[in-house]
């Protein structure tokens, strides 16, 4: 009934429309869809989309930029359902990577070409008699050195796409986990060891640096967000098979694991509205993939965990933290 009323009372004048859309933007800050906590659009999503379409499609980019959650939702609904036959697609401007200047590369190539030209000029100055003498002595035909061809580099567009892939959160396999057991690391006072259930037959053993902030008993039966495709390895002689994502205050005096909703299913994967992609089988430590993604992970002013402002979503709603505007790692 709420959204039917929204549609029936949607104003005609642009100033009033902007005010109503600002309210809708706030409503969508913690949601991927209008009804429920999941990711499946409802009838309410479609009727509201239809009601605001004619106004939003005419907005300049500057005004669209003031409605980030509405535009994210519109992009998601357009991509989720085949609405092309009924509505003209609303263009949603997304941030683009700007490649660094290629001035240095150009200078190096110019220097290389200049050197090659100088060398070829000197070789050309050799007399024909000298070349013939060399031919008779060695029985070989003198051949001029071929100019080296600079290695072709990818286009800026290709480099931008590859760069974007390196910092895409879809590379991470993020799952809802439940800590079944926790104890102190046998040889490191700053570390704890946890056994975490992610729906597999075997519990995952994970080493985390939470000893300074939690007693082992405080972590028992606590839900967490776990990266399950990090490369397994030993931390102070204890095997670790995952990474618990935690929110941290600016001065790092307060640290806590992210909190999935109680209704989220153990083992389900975290999703991000509008972001597609398949997680890596195992993250490559040499590529420092997580280190490149981490600066874009943070909680917003309401404590919702996000990647570039897009909430960590589960079937039960977004993952959160009691620490707002915190870094996540």
UniProtKB/TrEMBL annotation:
<feature type="domain" description="TRNA-binding">
    <location>
        <begin position="168"/>
        <end position="271"/>
    </location>
</feature>
<dbReference type="Pfam" id="PF21972">
    <property type="entry name" value="Arc1p_N_like"/>
</dbReference>
<keyword id="KW-0648">Protein biosynthesis</keyword>
<feature type="region of interest" description="Disordered">
    <location>
        <begin position="106"/>
        <end position="162"/>
    </location>
</feature>
<dbReference type="InterPro" id="IPR053836">
    <property type="entry name" value="Arc1-like_N"/>
</dbReference>
<dbReference type="InterPro" id="IPR012340">
    <property type="entry name" value="NA-bd_OB-fold"/>
</dbReference>
<protein>
    <submittedName>
        <fullName>Aminoacyl tRNA synthase complex-interacting multifunctional protein 1 isoform X2</fullName>
    </submittedName>
</protein>
<keyword id="KW-0820">tRNA-binding</keyword>
<feature type="compositionally biased region" description="Polar residues">
    <location>
        <begin position="106"/>
        <end position="121"/>
    </location>
</feature>
<dbReference type="GO" id="GO:0032991">
    <property type="term" value="C:protein-containing complex"/>
</dbReference>
<dbReference type="GO" id="GO:0000049">
    <property type="term" value="F:tRNA binding"/>
</dbReference>
<dbReference type="GO" id="GO:0005737">
    <property type="term" value="C:cytoplasm"/>
</dbReference>
<feature type="compositionally biased region" description="Basic and acidic residues">
    <location>
        <begin position="122"/>
        <end position="138"/>
    </location>
</feature>
<dbReference type="InterPro" id="IPR051270">
    <property type="entry name" value="Tyrosine-tRNA_ligase_regulator"/>
</dbReference>
<feature type="compositionally biased region" description="Basic and acidic residues">
    <location>
        <begin position="148"/>
        <end position="162"/>
    </location>
</feature>
<keyword id="KW-0963">Cytoplasm</keyword>
<dbReference type="Pfam" id="PF01588">
    <property type="entry name" value="tRNA_bind"/>
</dbReference>
<keyword id="KW-0694">RNA-binding</keyword>
<dbReference type="GO" id="GO:0006412">
    <property type="term" value="P:translation"/>
</dbReference>
<dbReference type="InterPro" id="IPR036282">
    <property type="entry name" value="Glutathione-S-Trfase_C_sf"/>
</dbReference>
<dbReference type="InterPro" id="IPR002547">
    <property type="entry name" value="tRNA-bd_dom"/>
</dbReference>
